[in-house]
Amino acid sequence: MFDRKKYMAEYRFKNRVRMNAYAREHRRENPEMYRRHERSRAQYQRGWKWGLRLKAFAALGDKCVRCGYDDPRAFQFNHKNGDGWKDVSSANGHYRMLKDIIAGKRSDIELTCANCNMIHARENNLFRIRENDMGEIRVN
Length: 140
Known about the structure:
Structural class: mainly alpha
Strand order of the largest sheet: 1-2
Helix content: 55-70%
Shape: elongated
Distance between the termini: 60 Å
Order of helices and strands: HHHEHHEHEE
Number of domains: 1
Strand content: 5-15%
Number of strands: 4
Radius of gyration: 23 Å
Largest sheet: 2 strands, antiparallel
């Protein structure tokens, strides 16, 4: 029996150099089409991500747990244990974190405003001290 998926995969593999050259040429000849596509895709993703963040904010109470501030533009997710780097360093970390918050699976995260999140980090010494290439010490 003819397996179209397998056939197309083999075809693309055998002809990848020619197909890539054609794609590069097409992109060079039609830059406006690709710019328009990139803009619309980026716009869609920004809206989609913001919608996901708003759902996570709602799941966490829609206000800062420390001071009660309720403007979502200043909200940040505070990892109570100070291990937020784990969420952003994995492949789908931030997306997975938001989906888990919405589903109610994350009790180690609270919603804080930017000021309260910074105060929490300073109080608990959650900043890493690093030395850059020139020997200068930076606090992140």
